[in-house]
């Protein structure tokens, strides 16, 4: 699909000097380990944030853990006096990065989530589990086991590719397989092809990737949220996010922060 928004719908964008604003809720951010709540205050361009733990801080979208205690905590939150608008369910349950084993097999995940299916509250919308390997059969097998596909308001995917073209191809391939709901991209960044930390971070390429992927996401209409990874700097041996963090270890802005806060999706 073209990065240029359809003229028939957004004709005003053809006027020189006029830019589009990103749709409300489209721009979001992920925080990894050692994050601080104060970091989000430097990102007024983001609507929401998430990290890899359950939490209900302002503007945070909580994430469901992989055990019974986590499910019980989620049930209490969605049935409490201030239920979250959204709740992310299992995060990459098909792959433990330390062992390479499956964390939750589809049947185990289906059994684990049953109490939440029975007590979902009246407000919260639930986002489908996101496999590490998005084109595997894990999600389909999970849906077959739980018979709960209609329970979820959106599908969910993680994408790390060096170029926007490759990222779009993977997103479109997932969309062809799961096209009955809107899509959330809860992790995305220009993953590096080298296994080593970059000697010089190609900020210009990361900025271009970020601007183009958000503009394309806006143009699709079926991508509702995109979470940039990462808000904070972590070990650069994680080549997925080695060239994409918005704040460094000292919470100082990188060259990516200002473009992130001023995305126009045009």
Topology at a glance:
Elements (H helix, E strand, L loop, with lengths): L26 E4 L17 E3 L17 H11 L7 E3 L17 H13 L6 E3 L10 H9 L5 E9 L3 H14 L5 E7 L13 H18 L2 E7 L27 H5 L5
Parallel strand pairs: 1-2, 1-7, 3-4, 4-5, 5-6, 6-7
Helix pairs in contact: 1-2, 2-3
Model description:
The chain is an alpha/beta fold and 266 residues long. The protein has one domain: Alpha-Beta Barrel (TIM Barrel). It is 26% helix and 14% strand. It has helices spanning 68-78, 106-118, 138-146, 164-177, 203-220, 257-261; strands spanning 27-30, 48-50, 86-88, 125-127, 152-160, 183-189, 223-229. The protein has a seven-stranded parallel β-sheet with strand order 2-1-7-6-5-4-3. The longest helix is centred in the C-terminal third of the chain and has 18 residues, at 203-220. It is globular and about 50 Å long. The model is unreliable at 1-19 (pLDDT under 50).
Descriptors:
single chain, 266 residues, alpha/beta, TIM Barrel, 6 helices, 26% helix, globular, disordered N terminus
CATH homologous superfamily (4th level) name: Glycosidases
Neighbour order of strands in the largest sheet: 2-1-7-6-5-4-3
Number of helices: 6
* Helical residues, percent: 25-40%
Just name the CATH architecture. Alpha-Beta Barrel
Query: According to CATH, what is the class?
Result: Alpha Beta
Structural class determined from secondary elements:
alpha/beta
Q: Name the average pLDDT.
A: 91
Order of helices and strands: EEHEHEHEHEHEH
Query: N- to C-terminal separation?
Result: 14 Å
CATH topology: TIM Barrel
Number of beta-strand segments: 7
Give the tally of structural domains: 1
Share of residues in strands: 5-15%
Low-pLDDT runs: 1-19
Report the sheet with the most strands, covering strand number, pairing sense and barrel closure: 7 strands, parallel
Rg result:
18 Å
Pfam families: Glyco_hydro_cc (PF11790)
Organism: Aspergillus tanneri
Signal peptide: 1-20
Protein name: Asl1-like glycosyl hydrolase catalytic domain-containing protein
């Amino acid at each position: 699909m073209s990065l240029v928004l359809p003229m028939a719908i957004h004709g005003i964008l053809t006027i020189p000097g006029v830019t589009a604003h990103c749709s409300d809720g489209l721009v979001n951010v992920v925080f990894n380990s050692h994050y601080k709540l104060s970091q989000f205050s430097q990102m007024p361009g983001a609507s929401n944030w998430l990290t890899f733990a359950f939490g209900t801080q302002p503007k945070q979208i909580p994430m469901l853990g992989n055990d019974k205690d986590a499910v019980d905590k989620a049930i209490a939150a969605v049935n409490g006096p201030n239920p979250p608008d959204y709740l992310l369910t299992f995060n990459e349950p098909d792959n433990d990065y330390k062992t390479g084993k499956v964390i939750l097999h589809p049947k185990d995940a289906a059994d684990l989530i049953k109490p939440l299916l029975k007590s979902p509250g009246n407000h919260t919308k639930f986002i489908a589990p996101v496999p590490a390997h998005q084109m595997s059969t894990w999600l389909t097998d999970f849906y077959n086991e739980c018979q709960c596909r209609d329970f979820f308001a959106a599908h969910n995917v993680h994408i790390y590719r060096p170029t926007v073209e490759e990222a779009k191809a993977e997103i479109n391939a997932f969309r062809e397989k799961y096209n009955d709901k809107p899509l959330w991209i809860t992790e995305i960044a220009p993953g590096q092809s080298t296994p080593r930390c970059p000697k010089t971070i190609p900020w210009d390429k990361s900025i271009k990737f970020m601007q183009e992927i958000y503009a394309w996401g806006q143009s699709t209409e079926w991508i509702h949220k995109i979470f940039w990874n990462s808000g904070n700097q972590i070990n650069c041996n994680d080549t997925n996010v080695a060239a994409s963090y918005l704040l460094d270890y000292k919470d100082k802005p990188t060259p990516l922060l200002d473009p992130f806060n001023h995305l126009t999706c045009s």
